[in-house]
């Protein structure tokens, strides 16, 4: 489960920000996760709670904003929404797609005391 390692990285980011900005408690972490990022949002929430224990983020909620996967279809020359990398263009059926969005995974905001 790589979500555990990803959550450890998020807690490290939060702790670095706490040192830099001098806050003592994190109430919420807002995380953007793209549909093509290979990360399961529900697993992230479960893992975050475990990893955040006994850290500045203990008890903080993990709010996940999911973004759609998007790709440029070379066959029909349009931007389309996709749920997985291996699926065809929903408009023309071509597999000639160039991913343009939905791979993101970033900390967007922190709610702190």
Automatic annotation (TrEMBL):
Q: Where does Zn(2+) bind?
A: 73, 76, 89, 92
Report the Pfam families cross-referenced here.
HypA
The entry's Ni(2+)-binding residues are 2
Record family assignment: Belongs to the HypA/HybF family.
Q: Which NCBIfam families would you find in this protein's record?
A: hypA
Purpose: Involved in the maturation of [NiFe] hydrogenases. Required for nickel insertion into the metal center of the hydrogenase.
Q: What is this protein called?
A: Hydrogenase maturation factor HypA
**Species whose genome carries this gene:** Bradyrhizobium diversitatis
